[in-house]
Amino acid sequence: MNSERIIKKYPNRRLYDTEVSRYITLADVRDLVMSGQPFRVLDSANDSDITRAILLQIMLEEESGGQPLFSATMLAQIIRFYGGTLQGAFTRYLESSLDLFAKQQQEMARALSDNPFEAVARLAQKNVEMWADLQDEFMRAAGFPVARRKKRNDEDCENRT
């Protein structure tokens, strides 16, 4: 089922999954995230979307137990972007970077089932090119001049002649 799941949060702080008609926990919401199930969490009092707040609460629980994903330095750097002129560009950069990382993980899993060494070399080259393009986009959005780079294919063609 690909439809967006609606979860209601009640004043007693309980979460109610309208699809399965039962109360659920934050761990259940985390399971929805992990499975890729689209959902929204709505405040039952006014139907405002509080999905981000619930996701942040899950992240806080994850960060407080076990191995944290974010260091204090990294969190401080992220906080510094709030309200700044580059906040929007930084948001797009982080989203693009995470999307790229997830896609590469999927590609790597598929490629390793074929020829692992060739796959790693091909993905490494592609990774370098995509990260360079992403960084160029971020620098342009920040207003910095970006030197034009030749694409790998152009260089390969020149080297063959």
From TrEMBL:
Residues 6-65 form the PHA accumulation regulator DNA-binding N-terminal domain. Residues 70-108 form the PHB accumulation regulatory domain. It holds the Pfam family PHB_acc. InterPro entries: PHA_DNA-bd_N (IPR012909), PHA_reg_PhaR (IPR010134), PHB_accumulat (IPR007897). GO terms for biological process: regulation of DNA-templated transcription. It comes from the Bacteria. Signal peptide: none annotated. This is Polyhydroxyalkanoate synthesis repressor PhaR. It comes from Thermochromatium tepidum ATCC 43061. The gene is phaR.
